[in-house]
């Protein structure tokens, strides 16, 4: 079983739709959680950190469920520019070494 | 804004060549990383460094070595390039956050083709 698992998609949604991705992790000692966005042939860029109480940044909402060991990303009012691959990243300790990436979920927003 | 710069965007090398990939960051970050990214396999950590002259093996260090002589620069070395090292190589940096990790900042990648 992979340490961090994501549904690879692709998710194809119309503009304006709401879409949600989940990411499950296997290590209950995980401490830090992030969502990254990666455009085609570009480097990953931090989208948002995920805090225990959940957090929001504009149209993006991240949630953490420690009991069920998953994090989620909700995108409201999807834009064409949201088309990208979304990577879930989980850190298992305070060590910089212990960052594990999911394989990513591909999102395409259609006009 | 953090800037992580990789020396080459595209590189084509022959089997058996020694290859150097260079990475420089301008934010005085302690940690620097080398990943490779392959379709279906995601990002895999090759090596990372948490201080000058310090390094740790990642998940796939075989066939690679690294050098960190200065805090801002982290080099990945392919001692004898092989075709299975054809990949996208991504450098990243972060500061040391404890107990919570700080996020990574990536360079724009080097697409290496070994023929």
State the gist of this model.
Chain A is mainly beta and 111 residues long. Helix content of chain A is 0%, strand content 54%.
Explain what you see.
The complex is a heterodimer of chains A (111) and B (115). Chain A contains no helices and 11 strands. Chain A is mostly beta strands. Chain B is mainly β. In chain B, strands 2, 4, 5, 6, 9, 10 and 11 form a 7-stranded mixed sheet that branches. In chain B, strands 1-3-8-7 form a 4-stranded antiparallel sheet, with no helix packed on it. Classes of the chains: A mainly beta (111), B mainly beta (115). At the A-B interface, strand 5 and strand 9 of A face strand 5 and strand 10 of B.
Question: Low-confidence parts of chain A lasting 5 or more residues at pLDDT below 50?
Answer: none
Cα shape of chain A: globular
Rg over alpha carbons of chain B: 13 Å
The biggest sheet of chain A amounts to: 6 strands, mixed
> N-to-C terminal Cα separation of chain B, in Å?
37 Å
Distance between the termini of chain A: 37 Å
H/E element sequence of chain B? EEEEEEEEEEE
Mean pLDDT of chain A: 90
Helix segment tally of chain B: 0
Q: Which range does the strand content of chain B fall in? A: over 45%
Specify the overall morphology of chain B.
Answer: globular
Would you report the number of β strands of chain B? 11
Largest contact between protein chains? A-B, 23 and 27 residues
What is the assembly state of the chains in this entry?
heterodimer
Number of helices of chain A: 0
